[in-house]
Amino acid sequence: MLVEVQHEALRLAIVIVCGNTNINQNSINEYFIKNDIFDPLIQLIISPKTSHMAYEAIMLLDILANYNKHESRNPYLTKLIDIKGEAVFEKIMEVLSSTCIKCQGQYIEIQEDDEANKYLISTVVSYVGSILPWYGSGTKQHSNVSDPELAFVRL
Fold first, then answer.
1. Which of 25, 59, 100, 106 is buried most, with the most CB atoms less than 10 Å from its CB?
2. How far apart are CA 112 and CA 21, in angstroms?
3. For 39-87, how does the pLDDT look when each residue is reduced to its tens digit (9 = 90+)?
4. How many angstroms separate the first and last alpha carbons of the chain?
5. Gap between the Cα atoms of 80 and 73, Å rounded
6. What angle do CA 44, 51, 67 make, to 5 degrees?
7. 38-46 and 86-131 helices cross at what angle (nearest 10)?
8. pLDDT for the residue numbered 70
9. Residue 146 has what pLDDT?
10. Mean pLDDT of the chain
11. Residue 19 has pLDDT above 80, yes or no
12. Calpha distance 44→37 (Å, rounded)
């Protein structure tokens, strides 16, 4: 029960921190700068019990570390630089690696869907072009359309 509450609180914190179009103008972020939650976030990242929350904890830590980092001293950025334990960085790299692999898989899936739709559109345009008598009049008939966008423009 406690782990679920922690997870929802972490998600809520991310929503609150990102609640403005410009994160550096979000005055609520000053609360998190003054009331440091760095150590609890690190514990969420490295603890085996809360490993499913590591992605969100890293995201929140990253957002807070980049908040006004050029205008004032940011305790999150300072503490991140001072970390000596390899376990934290290994977990961060593990999460980043799995996130990149997941994004790559989703991109490939989208590309495969695009290819399937491209061939479907090409087939439909070819069929419509073959049954319309005015399609291609005065020009060469195109029975095999390879570019669906060009075929649509010609319609």
1. 59
2. 33
3. 999 999 999 999 999 999 999 999 999 988 887 788 999 999 999 888 9
4. 61
5. 13
6. 45
7. 70
8. 83
9. 64
10. 83
11. yes
12. 11
Write out pLDDT tens, residues 85-100. 889 999 999 999 999 9
Q: Which pLDDT does position 153 carry in this prediction?
A: 67
Three-state SS for the chain is CHHHHHHHHHHHHHHHHCCCCCHHHCCHHHHHHHCCCHHHHHHHHHCHHHHHHHHHHHHHHHHHHHCCCCCCCCHHHHHHHHCCCHHHHHHHHHHHHHHHHHHHHHHHHHHHHHHHHHHHHHHHHHHHHHHCCCCCCCCCCCCCCCCHHHHHHHC
Cβ(20)–Cβ(70) under 8 Å? no
- Asked if 41 contacts 57 with a C-beta cutoff of 8 angstroms, the reply is yes
CB neighbours of 43 closer than 8 A, spacing ≥ 6?
Answer: 50
* pLDDT exceeds cutoff 60 at 138: no
- Could you state, in order of their start, the residue ranges of all structural domains in the chain? 2-83, 112-154
Cα–Cα distance, 91 to 85 (Å, whole number): 11
